[in-house]
Structure to design on (95 residues):
């Protein structure tokens, strides 16, 4: 078997790989936070229907809506900041 030489990455390739990694992490984080917001709205809507249609269930519908709004606002804020961070990183590295 012939020996395989390790290929060393250039500085530019390392920067591109770093940016790619950060973009993927941001995508995963925002996806996870979107899921949390969706679950919060799901619970809030379920409680609303329980209140309106009189099905059994515990919890306060107002509290559930407040929770859903807070989670949604947090997701939007974090997503915005992460997107700006990613864009600045791209500009800095000339992509």
């Amino acid at each position: 078997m012939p020996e395989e030489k390790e290929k060393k990455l250039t500085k530019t390739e390392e920067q591109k790989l770093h940016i790619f990694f950060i973009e993927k992490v941001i995508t995963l984080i925002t996806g996870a936070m979107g899921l949390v917001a969706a679950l919060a709205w799901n619970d809030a809507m379920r409680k609303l229907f329980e209140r309106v249609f009189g099905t059994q269930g515990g919890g306060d519908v107002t509290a559930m809506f407040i929770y859903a709004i807070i989670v949604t606002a947090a997701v939007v804020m974090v997503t915005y900041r992460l997107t700006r961070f990613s864009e600045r990183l791209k500009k800095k590295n000339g992509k």
